Amino acid sequence: MRSLIFNLAYYTVSAVYAVICAILALVPGRRILMHGIRSYARLTVLLMRWICGIKVEVRGTPPKNQAVILAAKHQSWGDGLAMMAKCGDVNFICGDHMLNYPLIGWVLKRCGAIVVSNQGGAEAMASLRAGVERSQGEGRPRPILIYPEGHLTPVGTGMRYRSGAWQLSSQLDRPVVPVATNLGQCWPQQKWSKFSGTAVIEFLEPMPPSPDRNSFLAELETRVETRSRALEAEFAAPVRESVSHPENAEKTDASMHRRLV
User: Fold this and answer.
1) Domain ranges, ordered by start, for the chain
2) Concatenated DSSP letters for 104-169?
3) 2-259 architecture in CATH?
4) Which of 108, 159, 227, 241 has a beta carbon 3.0–4.6 Å from 149's, enabling a disulfide?
């Protein structure tokens, strides 16, 4: 029932904010528009907490107003919203499929988002380079958020990391901050059901720019995936511990009922 209530609230809020942000996008500059977008992200995180019992915990230091690349694990539709809610003014890279949503294309263009082709290859790299050139003229630095896998992945799995994070780091001469998460255990990919618990976003030690693409991407993938698996195991540990002790079986049943939303 709580999943139903949350989804109804989330999509209603999203529709309202799409209109609000489209109107704010008419204002010159992007400062006011970004306030609207961050307000939407923060409200969504609050709805996750109030309705679904999903607490978003941040570990490490979010690099607010810093010229870094955020290379994050992508398990959930809520990943980007949680990042914007916790990291302030963030630029982000998204696939061109987002342009298919009403009003979204206009808002993305006005807020300076870097939109790349979902087809990958030369076309995606060309759009990435164009977005990078545009972002260099913004003046005030802000983190750029990218999902190196390029797709949502189920909990416990991963995909080959694409070269976008390395390209950004090399061209802009910015460090890359790996970001691990287990949010997919509370809000799996784009699924309807939500699960209560503590979702962690963890900012890891920055990686300096490197001329060696392959070793850089291998190290980035190792850091993000290893830490994400550890966070997933941490999330599941209380249930496993209860199951291993028969005298806690009654508590385990209650815990499972609370976790399933």
Assistant:
1) 2-259
2) HHHHHHHHT-EEE-TT-HHHHHHHHHHHHHHHHTTSS---EEE-TTSS---TT---PPPSHHHHHH
3) 3-Layer(aba) Sandwich (3.40)
4) 159
> Strands 69-72 and 144-146: what pairing?
parallel
| Calpha distance 212→210 (Å, rounded) | 5
The pLDDT tens digits for 173-222 are 999 999 999 999 999 998 999 999 999 999 999 999 999 999 999 999 99
Task: Give the H or E element holding residue 243.
Answer: helix 213-243
- The predicted-structure confidence for 49-106, as pLDDT tens digits, reads as follows 999 999 999 999 999 888 899 999 999 999 999 999 988 888 888 777 777 777 888 8
DSSP assignment, residue 26? Answer: T
Three-state secondary structure call for residue 220 = helix
This prediction has a pTM of 0.86
